[in-house]
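As a warm-up, study this chain.
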Amino acid sequence: MSAVIIDGKVFAAKVRGQVAAHVARLVEEHGITPGLAVVLVGSDPASEVYVKSKGKMTVEVGMTSIEHKLPADTAEVDLLALIAKLNADPKIHGILVQLPLPAHLNSELVINSIDPAKDVDGFHISNVGLLGTGQKSMVPCTPLGCLMMLRDHHGSLSGLNAVVVGRSNIVGKPMAQLLLGDSCTVTIAHSRTKDLAAVCRGADILVAAVGRPEMITGDYVKPGATVIDVGINRIERGGKTVLVGDAEFESCAAVAGAITPVPGGVGPMTIACLLANTVTACCRANGLAEPEGLTA
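Now compare it with the structure written out below.
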């Protein structure tokens, strides 16, 4: 293996430290404590673990953490009423509705009922449109984390060729917009792209976000390229369940200049960027300067 390992755990700890320092300044200089409200409907085990982790880290950086756990059969009108209440609460600067929602709830309607300024997931259609037109927006956490790591590793991204493999609204599309914003030349590819390997080999930055275990192998990677692996897939291997990315780590690491591992790469950055987005939303709501290094 020749690639530099981009350690997401270490970088996420650094980001959380920056968030904590900014929160401390907001409290000391302005008497403002950023507040994050997380809404969980139902009892999906993975979601419960994720929400608990979010709450713990929110408190650790000095912010207010509010959790609303609702039964799985919660009526849509009641969920929307709760969101309206959180929208109107000046002490709440970020609102996150944990996905997936139970089948009887309209996810798009629910997400678009959140005040765009408090939409720290960056999923509201208004934020999608603002990001797509290069305006100030709330940015989805996972792509923001990828951008932060790329900036840290490369410095300037200007002029680099970037290929994003994956076209989801949560990662692929916003990732492409962020890379365009940093003056990369961007190609969005996917599982149906003709001669996908050849397209990927043209990339200085290759973002694997296709949702297929180990689909990207070493022969897709340009020598010296940076591989950002967004995938988190559980597979059976050797009689055990293991986590793997969308890139086959060993073969890609043998060719790449730098690569994020799975686990321990992009994953830890998602919650760190959620905290960063909450601080950013708080600063914008109060007309204060946004925290440096924590926004797109």
